[in-house]
Amino acid sequence: MAKSRTHAAEFRQVLRLLNLLGHPLRVVIVQRLARKPSTAGELAQELPVTRTAVVQHLKQLEEAELVLASDDGKRRVYRVNRRGFGALTRWVARVARD
Hints:
Blueprint: H1 2-20, H2 24-35, E1 38-39, H3 40-46, H4 51-63, E2 67-72, E3 75-80, H5 86-97
Antiparallel strand pairs: 1-3, 2-3
């Protein structure tokens, strides 16, 4: 029973991550942060949206633990949290294996 509850909780997490990553801009942000940690301003300069929009997307990614933020002086630097993708990675591996 505990195993099925664990799988159910992990599946809910997978659904949440897939829904979050269903937005193309968030996927692009994650891809860019995987290559290089950046500030919201740096990301906004590379994307066709405002810094405010980037910050809103980063907040959602951070709440889902896909992105980590750290303060560097007055700058807030974001980077990918690879551990945050664990449930999704395990689910994809199970699907591919089955």
